[in-house]
Amino acid sequence: MGNEHIKGRKKCASFFNFLSTEEMNRVTYLFLMLSWTCVTAMAQHQLETYPAPEGAALNDDFDVAVRIPGGEWKHVDTYAFKVDEVVNYRHTERLTSVATFDFEGQVEVRVKSKTGPVATSRVRPLSYQIQTQTADSTLAFTLSQPRNISVEVNGDIYRNLQLFACPMDANKPKKKKMKNLIYFAPGIHQLQGDSLHIPSGTTVYLAGGAVLKGFLSTYGNDDIRICGRGIVDPGRHEGVMVRYSRNVEVDGIITTQMPVGGSENVRITNCKVISWYGWGDGFNVFASNKVYYDQVFARTSDDCSTIYCTRKGYHGGCKDIMVRNAVYWADVAHPIMIGLHGDIEKNEVIEHVVYDQVDILDQAEYQVDYQGCIGINNGDNILVRDVTFQHIRIENMRKGMLFNFRVCFNKKYCTAPGRGIENVTLRDISYQGEGERMSVMAGYNEERSIKNIRFENFLYNGKVISDDMPEKPKWYKTSDMANLFIGEHVGEVTFSR
Fold first, then answer.
1. Would you tell me how many other CB atoms lie within 10 Å of the CB of residue 452?
2. How many other CB atoms sit within 10 Å of the CB of residue 351?
3. β-strands 484-486, 463-465: how paired?
4. How confident is the model over 314-368, as pLDDT tens digits?
5. Tens digit of pLDDT for each residue in 395-429?
6. Are 44 and 104 in contact (CB under 8 A)?
7. Closest CA to 182 of 111, 232, 234
8. pLDDT one-digit tens code per residue, 195-223
9. What is the 3-state secondary structure (H, E, C) of the chain?
10. Which of 38, 125, 214, 328 lies in disulfide reach of 304, CB 3.0 to 4.6 Å?
11. Average pLDDT over the chain, rounded to whole?
12. Contact 261, 312 (CB under 8 A)
């Protein structure tokens, strides 16, 4: 065998001897390019899964596996989370499934339903256009970028799978023991006193497969990072609380609620919240400035995203709030809610707010006062101005309305009406559904009014709603074409293509 190997090398050398220098250079170049392409292709595809710790609450409705195309399948554990279903006006706990993994490049996903054959399936948001292949009790699909999605079989939106396909974790510490680092390894950790108050200048890292029992708080401290791929499980409580702090970053965490109050320069990315109990708002902003969200998911038993002024001990208005790439699912109340709470003596202002690239999967609210996928309910002498909602896709809802813009006096939560709503742009809003209630836009009086509301390219069940749309009778309001009631003390509402 050794001589044959030498003969093979001689033949190879003889072959190259016949090549000219130019041909040799070309072969070398092609070989290097092929090698570089193979290495690059391998580097582009990465995948990491995180086994659940022993003792964690799991759900066996689904068997989930992922792989790099052509590679080995890797099992993904599914956690049991609670969500809220309103049955006969009563809140009812339901168990749902949550799974997560990290990847880069492309990944194939296989989901087996262990509750029976799959007659129908869908992956939402629908705007992602993720196509599934189904065989008996298994469905499969491919992802080419990080997504927070709901996998639903046979129309069941409660026994579904929330699948969080995240980017590779860039925040992993190089060492587990470093100055100003609090590291939680995979496993279940019970916080002493049920809470951890994080000192200034500290990074808290939760590894994938870590479940933290209790809640995290930044109370009064600055320059803090909370990151990783772990779960913060506080029970019926906020999981991560950014309170009276500056320069805070939260990335990659799954928990119940994540309020920001009395704070400035806060960045929340790739975070997910799921709640099931009363007052289970998702991402609250109270009296804070310069708060930025990106790649977030909320399925909540109250409002998914709110912006309020003085409330819960936080004081002041709100300015410079940005939300991008969000998925909202409100089992109760609003997906988006702005206004309502403030200090009537301070004449507070909410301004310079942008919601961009948002998918609203559902609203299920029986109380008319609290309906509205996009809500601005303005009370307590607050002025809301300079707000942009753009590239927002609203799917069919169970119970609710698209828009609820009101300068109102809600005596249950306010001690005065709001001062007004002005300069709101709604750009590239689309809705596809049926059975939604009529949307509402109404001021309080001449001094407390709504003005300068601009709809641009509003797509309502496949039709662009515009002041010059040919099918609109001349004696109709444009808003009539979109099931939107515009009441008293509302001026300068325009619809353009």
1. 15
2. 16
3. unpaired
4. 999 999 999 999 999 999 999 999 999 999 999 999 999 999 999 999 999 999 9
5. 999 999 999 999 999 999 999 999 999 999 999 99
6. yes
7. 232
8. 999 999 999 999 999 999 999 999 999 99
9. CHHHHHHHHHHHHHHHHCCCHHHHHHHHHHHHHHHHHHHHHHHHCEEEECCCCCCCCECCCEEEEEECCCCCCEEECCEEEEEEEEECCEEEEEEEEEEEEEEECCEEEEEEECCCCCCCEEEECHHHCCCCEEECCEEEEEECCCEEEEEEECCCCCCCEEEEEECCCCCCCCCCCCCCEEEECCEEEEEEEEEEECCCCCEEEECCCEEEEEEEECCCCCCEEEEECCEEECCCCCCEEEECCEEEEEECCEECCCCEECCEEEEEECCEEECCCCCCCCEEEECCEEEEEEEEEEEECCCCEEEECCECCECCCEEEEEEEEEEEEECCCCCEEEECCCCCCCCCEEEEEEEEEEEEEEEECCCHHHCCCEEEEEECCCEEEEEEEEEEEECCCCECCCEEEEECCCCCCCCCECCEEEEEEEEEEEECCCCCCCEEEECCCCCCEEEEEEEECEEECCEEECCCCCCCCCCCCHHHHHCEEECCCEEEEEEEC
10. 328
11. 93
12. yes
Count how many Cα atoms sit within 13 Å of the Cα of residue 381 in the half-sphere of its side chain. Answer: 10
Is pLDDT larger for residue 28 or for residue 249? Answer: 249
This prediction's pTM: 0.91
